[in-house]
Amino acid sequence: MEKLILGFLGSHSGSNMQAIVDKCKSGEVNAIPAVVISNNSEAYILHRGELAGLKTYHISSKQFPSQDELDEAIIKAFEQSSINLVILAGYMRKIGKLLLKHYKNRILNIHPALLPKFGGEGMYGMNVHKAVIESKEKESGATIHLVDEVYDTGKILLQGKVIVLDTDTPETLQLKVLEIEHKIYAEAINKIALGEIVL
Ligand code: GRF
Questions:
Q1: Do 16 and 75 fall into the same domain?
Q2: Is there a single domain that holds both residue 118 and residue 199?
Q3: Ligand 1 centroid – CA 144 distance (Å)
Q4: Are residues 121 and 98 in the same domain?
Q5: What is the Å distance from ligand 1's center to 199 Cα?
Q6: Structurally, how many domains does the chain consist of?
Q7: CA 112 / ligand 1 centre spacing (Å)
Q8: What is the pLDDT of residue 152?
């Protein structure tokens, strides 16, 4: 397996990217974080990227109204840094056909629940945690999966679980799940680097 060179796509805070970058820098994860792209010029993930010395890009559908052109712009930015693994870290847009084809089986996402439960369109952010609490689940967690044409249905690579207490609210559950997200995303990438997870 060639050395993994990571390209991130994110729309908001980027705490998952930060956890991965920190572990790459400490040597815990055998990969090179190189690029971050956001569709939101104000996103904190771009600021984190600058501080960490990554190449940062703002690429949005306002600049590229056609999905193919948007995909091409993203591919071009990633190609310039020889990205070979794409990491979705809170990216609030659907991935286009060209990008999916170019990085077939090389795009990872993290979902804040135990897929296949609580996935699909509209299931993001607090909506997920509310649904888990309303269904009186005893456990929840996070899922790392490959991205395909349909939301949240790609091959599951790794999951981490948390216990849901009767006293949990969507907000407390979100914090617990985020903590496990920060562990397993980096762990999954390192397992790919070691050949323990084969894409
Ligand atoms: C996480 O909860 C992740 O599961 C979801 O988007 C959120 C991103 O958070 N896909 P952050 O930007 O990494 O802090």
A1: yes
A2: yes
A3: 12
A4: no
A5: 22
A6: 2
A7: 7
A8: 81
Q: Give the active site residue among 47, 111, 129, 182.
A: 111
Rounded to two decimals, what is the model's pTM?
0.96
Q: What is the mean pLDDT of the chain?
A: 96
Clarify whether 111 is annotated catalytic: yes
88 and 30, same domain (yes or no): yes
- Among candidates 48, 42, 51, which has minimal Cα distance to 8? 48
Give the per-residue pLDDT at 1: 60
Report whether 59 contacts 30 (CB < 8 A). no
Provide the 10 A C-beta neighbour count for residue 98.
16
In terms of Cβ atoms closer than 10 Å to its own Cβ (0-12, 13-18, 19+), residue 122 is exposed
Domain CATH code at residue 178: 3.40.50.170
Q: Which of 6, 12, 16, 48 to mutate to test the pocket of ligand 1 (most atoms within 8 A of CB)?
A: 16
* Alpha helices (H) in the chain, listed in sequence order: 15-26, 44-51, 67-80, 97-102, 126-134, 170-194
Backbone angles phi, psi at 176, to 5 degrees: -65, -45
End position of a domain, from candidates 104, 138, 157: 104
> pLDDT tens digits, residue range 72-88?
999 999 999 999 999 99
Are both 59 and 153 inside the same structural domain?
no
Q: Which domain holds residue 145?
A: 110-199
For residues 5 and 65, state if they share a domain: yes
